[in-house]
Amino acid sequence: MDALGVYVADAVIGIDTLWGGDVMCPSGVGRFIADSWFSDEPLPAAYTHATAERLRKLGGVAAKDDNRAAAKEYIAAIKVRDAIAGVADAAKNISGTRGSYFAGLATCLDAMWALAMEVIGEGPEFAYEKAVLASTARAPEPSQPIAKRERVRELLSKAGYNSTGDSLLSAVDAWRAERVIPMASVKSLGQAVIAHFDNLSARNLVPYLPAELAKVPRANINFMPIKDAWFSGSMNYIGRARNADGSPQYEASYEINASLKITYPEFEQLVSHEVVPGHVTTFAYLQNLYVRGLAGFEASVLTMNTRAATLFEGIANNAILMAYGVTEVEQLPDEDLQVGVLLALLQDDAKNQSSYLTWGERQAQADVARCLRADFLVTEERADKLSGAWGRHPLLGRMYLPAYRAGTDRVAELRRKHAPEKILPGLFGCNGLVDIQTIDEVLKG
Q1: pLDDT for position 209
Q2: Is-contact 392 249, C-beta < 8 A?
Q3: Domain residue spans in the chain?
Q4: For residues 277 and 290, is the Cβ–Cβ distance under 8 A?
Q5: Could you give the CA distance from residue 179 to residue 96 in angstroms, rounded to a whole number?
Q6: Could you tell me which of 117, 119, 115 has the C-alpha nearest to residue 128?
Q7: What is the strand order of the sheet 233-237 is part of?
Q8: DSSP state of 359
């Protein structure tokens, strides 16, 4: 690993540790900021130092007030801020898209550092606008759900549900109740849906990518229901298993909350988002590019709350459209599936709205939850989590929840503007690792 790689490793793992993450944990229960570590490089001092282990066990800066002492010990031992500055300085001397990528990464890491300092009382409150700009490269703004909501109304009315006036939410609840899948069957059902979307991806994605990527497993994943998780689901890209010849197996897991109630059409959207051609496919392609020397070390330690993560969420939310080779929801072959996709997109609009109302307008959780339920048609469980555990989290609420909508809108716009042979290689890193802002650089010309 070169000097820049050391800076990236210490900066990313340092921020991850401050917030209680453990990139080596195979479960989403233990992971947080750092999404992957599949380079076979030794873990940095930011991970291995004794103060790091203690802080991880305590849950990081946001877990409880008495973790402040452990956080300060860690900061004294590991110069996280210096590592972030090292990434920023290196960006100035690297031309092209890669230099711009590092500049954006440093901006996001610096924001996460400032938020951590705010939590432990070592810095002022970090402005909401700066947090959203850091991770999405755009200013915060409220979501606009009306068009999607009215299309759901139209489709449900066509399917025989009474969705006039204030009855829309009741109609959506009824539609969902009739299509809920049994969690006991989620593993076998997941395998069937994964196979379906892998076949679609082979037809509508793979032909537009370099031939070498055709052999990369796009969906080596295991679905695992877990009980009492604070999240509805967690995709954990591992990428550390190797074949006899040393090549990666590109393995991942998806943990789904056993108490989650989800319809089959929404589950289809979930699989395309989390697995193929969404997150798992994205990470597997980047791992392959890294192994072949076509992407730098930074591609092996991918990070939440960054502009790259915003792009990845945009890819994932457009993945079902990519799989079918279309650009609009109304072009999907089944109207039931269209409803499921629209409800999933409304949920991600609700994530942005929760962030905006909670941090931009300082609304109470109960008021935010009511808005999410009524205006974005989310379930009561989702309204509670998005307005509470997610929305009010000092980091996720300000930097990650806005990423879904920002990424989705931008990727959809780019797919409408550019032919698949141009946009798809760009999105999946074939022209270099990009984020929600630097993707424009590789599409020029």
Answers
A1: 98
A2: no
A3: 3-126, 146-442
A4: no
A5: 49
A6: 115
A7: 220-226, 251-257, 233-237
A8: I
The residue count of the chain comes to 445
Which value, in Å, is the radius of gyration of the alpha carbons in the chain? 21
DSSP per-residue string spanning 13-24: HHHHHHTT--TT
| Confidence (pLDDT) at 232 | 66
Residue 220 belongs to what H/E stretch? strand 220-226
Q: Give pTM, 2 decimals.
A: 0.96
Phi, psi of 237 (to 5 degrees): -85, 120
Contact 285, 432 (CB under 8 A): no
pLDDT of residue 256: 81
Choose among 206, 215, 199: nearest CA to 248.
215
CA atoms of 150 and 168, how far apart (whole Å): 9
Say how far apart CA 339 and CA 347 lie, in whole Å.
12
Task: Tell which residue, 258, 260, 237, 257, has the closest CA to residue 249.
Answer: 237
Q: Checking DSSP bridges between strand 220-226 and strand 251-257, what pairing results, if any? A: parallel
CA distance 35 to 12: 10
Q: Count CB neighbours of 150 within 10 A.
A: 12
d(CA 182, CA 69): 45
pLDDT on residue 25: 93
CA 254 – CA 413 distance, rounded (Å): 29
The Cα–Cα gap between 217 and 63 comes to: 37
Residue that the structure tokens 């929801």 belong to:
329
Q: Do residues 48 and 56 make contact, with C-beta atoms less than 8 angstroms apart?
A: no
Residue pair 24/67 in contact by the 8 Å Cβ criterion = no
pLDDT for residue 226: 74
**Average pLDDT per consecutive 10 residues, the chain (445 residues; last block may be shorter):** 96 97 90 95 97 94 83 96 98 96 98 97 96 98 98 97 92 96 86 96 98 97 75 85 97 83 93 96 98 97 97 98 98 97 97 98 98 97 94 97 98 98 98 97 87
Rounded to whole angstroms, the maximal C-alpha distance in the chain is 64
